[in-house]
Amino acid sequence: MVGKMLIAFAMAGAMVSNVDADQWGHWRGPTGNGTAPSASPPTTWSPDENVKWKVEIPGRGSGSPVVWEERVFVVTAVPSGLDSPSSLGVRSSQRRSGGSMQPFAFTLLCFHRENGELLWKQVATEATPHDSTHPTNGFASASPCTDGELVYAHFGSQGLFAFTLDGALKWKRQDFGKMQTRNSFGEGSSPTLADDKILVPWDHEGGSFLYALDKQSGETIWKTPRDEPSCWATPLVIQQGAVQQVVMNGQNYARGYDLETGKELWRCGGQTERPVASAVGDDGVVYVGSGFRGSFLAAFRLDGRGDLAETDAVIWSIERDTPDIASPLLSGERLYFHKGKSGMLSCFDAATGEPHFTVTRVPGVNRTYASPVAASGFVFLTDRGGTTTVIRDANEFEVVATNSLGEGVDATPAFVGEQILIRGEKHLFCIEAPQQDSE
Q1: Which numeric CATH code is attached to 9-431?
Q2: Confidence (pTM)
Q3: What is the C-alpha separation between 320 and 339, in angstroms, rounded?
Q4: Is 365 within 8 Å of 327 (Cβ atoms)?
């Protein structure tokens, strides 16, 4: 084994330089690493405890909620004509009789953080998907993102749509083509905001690309070809010296690109088939891994150039028990990750790659899609069945609480202030402890 490292937001060398630490404008939070630097959420909840509000979400989707000030944004794909609570739980991969796909309304919803009131709903487009999707995936799996000026909803082959925070359509792009994903597993990579750009990953079984669009107009700034098959990872933007890099996972190579030009700066092989986990990084080091039909996770120095294999730019690497669907969490000097889709959890020293602990099974966590999140000295681990186990953010494993809302959860929760926003299978929940009377 060799070595690896994590994130302290105060050092602020990571993700989107113009994102407010008090917001959650991206599915991995303001740092891009899964940390909520200023949040202080409760550690316990249940259907009857610390649920400030919950609202039904029509249709189906596993895109994570994002939050800006008092607005919460969620995407969903609603079978056309079923825009009501009765449509909840309808399988988005379901075909009509005769084998043809049914049409969907690809929708962005905006709720008020204080009470869950629906502020507005915009159907970005109504369309019939050209291909089916995995039974555990839907047609609204990419998370939206926002910079507090516009909010962006990405529905893959159906297009990318930019709205004002009041719901007015600013621009749209529906010319990317039709994705052909591995085994018709469906689409799900989320876009990332950085400076004046929105980055759109487009890896599939056809021609793959990474796009940088002008976030105000949607016009293409650069478009870089990628010799990669299907990948579901989301770009990470991270500072290295005077250069901002875009780091992308890939089946053939992990790669770093220059944000301004799209030029490839470095690459390194070793990843496994159909990667999903997104990169995390800080302080000149990035961590990229995958765990389907193999295992690989490595720490790369961002000042490396060209092919990094067998160079000192690879600080450390491991080849067992690495993440698959859920992305790693980088918190301070600790790197957390699940083995594959299981509840097995490892915590490593990010700088050295040495393990602090490995827990074969976290209580209540068996299968994972949602990525772990760190907030206020705790790490929140969410099972597909809806259980969230809270552990101490420390070098030793300690369970603090085990919570459930009674329905499945595939989306990564959002942490803002004293609240947690959880996108469940049927509802959006706001978790917050009641305010204590000061008298």
Answers
A1: 2.130.10.10
A2: 0.91
A3: 8
A4: no
